Amino acid sequence: MRAVCQRVSHAEVRVDGVATGQIGAGLVVLVGVAHGDTAEDADRLAGKIARLRIFEGETGKFDRSLLDTGGAALVVSQFTLIADTRKGNRPSFVDAAPPEEAEPLYEELCKALCREGVPVETGIFGALMALELVNDGPVTIVLG
Q: Of 96, 104, 112, 130, which residue has the fewest beta carbons closer than 10 angstroms?
């Protein structure tokens, strides 16, 4: 599994012009699921996301997490994160898990974040989505 975590002041995801998820301060988490990923990978990644210290504390340093700030996560599936671009100019997605494998793991990641105590909003798995966000910092971290 691969996740791109963007610290945001607010974000919203829409499908067919209708908001399916929106958050204030927190993280937008774009998630790609690869062949061979497991529920244990989803749980481990959720713990990492929940505890990722990329919010400034009183000292101005990155020493606070979503759990510390009470921030939310907007989690959006994005199989293109698993793209292989080593050959040619067209990305290959052969390493991405098929939807019937990826969707349960995406859902497990969302549930695991909730179990960690993080409020979670989502897009719709497999849908064409419009994501609008204000990247705060900007701060963007890739986890995998």
A: 130
